[in-house]
Each structure stands twice: as C-alpha cells, then as structure tokens.
Amino acid sequence: MTPAGPSHVDPTDHPFDAAAASAARLAELTGVDHHDVAVVLGSGWKPAADRMGEVVAEIPMTELGGFPEASVAGHGSTVRSIRSGDRNVLAFMGRVHLYEGHHPNVVAHGVRTAVRAGARVVVLTNAAGGLRPDMTVGQPVLISDHINLTGRTPLLGTNDDRLGPRFPDLTDAYSPRLRDLARTVEPTLAEAVYMGLLGPAYETPAEVRMVAALGGELVGMSTVLETIAAAHAGAEVLALSLVTNLAAGLGQEALDHEDVLAVAATSAERMGTLIADVVGKI
Ligand code: 8IG
C-alpha cells in the first residue's frame, strides 16, 4: 500500500510536502503553471471530462508521485489539464478510496495537490445509493452536507499549519454559493445529506435504516475525506452524486456493481453537460 511515484514524498507522513512536490511535477509535465478548478470524476462521471474543454495534457496520476499504483492492471487513472474558457481545469479521471486500504492522506492527496496547484474550487462527483422516497435511479443530486461515518479523517496526526487550521469549520463545507450556481444551470437539482461509509460491502438493510435514522439521504464510499481536506485548505467544494441505486432493502433488486455502471453509462451524457456547464460558470 506504499504510494509510489517519482516525487518520493509520502503523503501519509508529509501531506503538505507531498502535495507541493506533486503540484510542481504537474506543472512540469503539463506545461500549465496553475490550475483554477479541480474536478474529481467518480464512477459514471468520466465522460464529463470530454465536454469541459480542450485537453491540454493527460498524464498517469502515478507520474505525479504520491498516488498508489493501479489496483487493476492496465486501469491506472489519469489526470487531465483542460482549458475551459479562460480557466485551467484539472480533472482527476478516478480517485483513491479508503476501502482499497489507503491512508486518509493518500485519499486526500489529489485534492491537496490541486489546491497547491492553485485550485480554489474543488468539484467532487460520485455514484451513490439513494434513501429518500423521491429519489430515482439516474438522478443527479447536490450534496448539501455530509456525515462522516468512515471513522477516518485526513486531518489525523499533528496538524501542518501550511495545510490549514487544526480545527477547521465545516459549516459551509459544501459551498452554498456553488450550490446556487449549479441550480442556475439545472434548476431542478435536488439536495441531500451524504453519508460516507468505509465500504466496500454495500450496507445491510438494518444499516440503511440506521443511516436514515441518523439523517443520511445518500450513501457512498468516497467524497467525505476529500471535502474535509479541501475545506481544511480553504477551497470551496461543489459535490454531486449520481443516484445509481436505491440503498439496500429499498429497491426491488439486489445491489450489483454492473447495474451501477450501466446506470452511470446511460446518464453520462446528461451528467457531462451538467458538470461542464457548471464548471464553465465557476
Ligand atoms: I454506486 O448503496 C453506490 N455506492 N455505501 N451504498 C454505499 N455506497 C454506494 C452505494 C450504496 N451505491
């Protein structure tokens, strides 16, 4: 589980220095000296990257240092530098999850790298299970807040003040300004509270009832640590979930990752347009 890469700075113990090294390497490899907006594309959102503008450079994430080698051979994630209007967008075509066994600082490394590269806005996307009765499969939902039930945080350990404060305020972690802006693109966008769990098993029906009792409206296995890292660093976050299934016990069928991917593929075009339009207005 040791993150590999040319920077040889390990985000686990040195998150700031690792992010600074990766940001420097990013500038070197892309020829783009700063990025304004970062977008993390989760399951089903990758086609969105093709609609955000002109691809200036695309490189394997492992080239930046601090990112783990791909767990599936030949499926290493890349990062794109995209010119969108007068802005430079850094699009991560995939992410690192806690359930893969990585340290929270490795999960947060992409966001921290983007912030070091200049990004003041971080757009996080994911696929999630929906709990609310009005939610339908294939629907995009804005995350208004989260409950971090992973039991982890990228702020664990001695705080490095260069990253952010010891005790960051998360009240407006999911930027009200950016949520309003997203609704100017798509006025029908619903909002929900996302509960982040470790995974990788989907919940039991009893756990889904627990999530609902605690105020969770979406369930997923990503995003919350990235949001904490971004907010800690003073960046604004916009987060979007694609509801790819109803949470366990609420739908008719057993949960299957293939179905999740199929829903995501069907929604890709709409999600791509949505995210591209939002990024264009940021
Ligand atoms: I896609 O139902 C997707 N990711 N925890 N539960 C959790 N994560 C998910 C789910 C789900 N669907």
- Summed up, the helix count is 7
- Fraction of residues in helices? 25-40%
Instruction: Identify every distinct bound molecule in the structure, by name, code or SMILES.
Output: 8-iodo-guanine
How many separate structural domains? 1
Name the structural class.
alpha/beta
**What does the average pLDDT come to?**
90
CATH class: Alpha Beta
What sort of overall outline do the alpha carbons produce when their principal axes are compared?
Answer: globular
The main sheet orders its strands as 5-8-7-6-9
What is the subunit arrangement here? single chain
What is the CATH topology classification name? Rossmann fold
First-last Cα distance:
36 Å
Strand content: 15-25%
CATH architecture: 3-Layer(aba) Sandwich
Order of helices and strands: HEEEEHHEEHEHEHEH
Could you tell me the number of beta strands? Answer: 9
